[in-house]
Design brief:
Elements lengths: L1 H20 L23 E14 L4 E6 L10 E6 L2 H4 L7 E9 L2 E9 L1
Antiparallel strand pairs: 1-2, 1-4, 2-3, 4-5
């Protein structure tokens, strides 16, 4: 009979113990010291210039993929990447063309602002 009493008492106490573990965090101090991430992160637009070789032109998507050299103004190494572009900027461009271009970059999106064949 003692075991039944212990089991019954455990069943009565368990919900209270569980509730004590799940306390609300309201009113608890939150220390954000050392967090260098600004709370209001807005993507800033940066501009750059580069030269490169056209790898792909996609007029339907309005994009051009270019293997370009380093972009010193942004600290970028040489790489191959896609850029958004206007249909008029893509006219006459084809794979293998050497180009000189300027672009605006906001976050992960880069858009051609000027492009010319070399």
């Amino acid at each position: 009979m003692k075991i039944a009493s212990i089991v019954f008492a455990s069943l009565l106490v368990s919900p209270a113990l569980f509730a004590a573990e799940k306390q609300s965090m309201e009113g608890m101090p939150m220390d954000h010291k050392g967090m260098d991430m600004p709370m209001d992160q807005k993507a800033t637009t940066k501009t750059g210039k580069a030269t490169g070789v056209v790898k792909k032109v996609d007029t339907e998507k309005g994009s051009v993929t270019i293997a370009h050299g380093p972009v010193e103004a942004l600290g970028w190494p040489s790489m191959t990447m896609g850029f958004k572009a206007e249909a008029t900027q893509l006219q006459g461009l084809k794979q293998g063309d050497k180009v000189k271009f300027e672009f605006a970059s906001t976050g992960m999106d880069s858009t051609i602002t000027r492009i010319e064949k070399q």
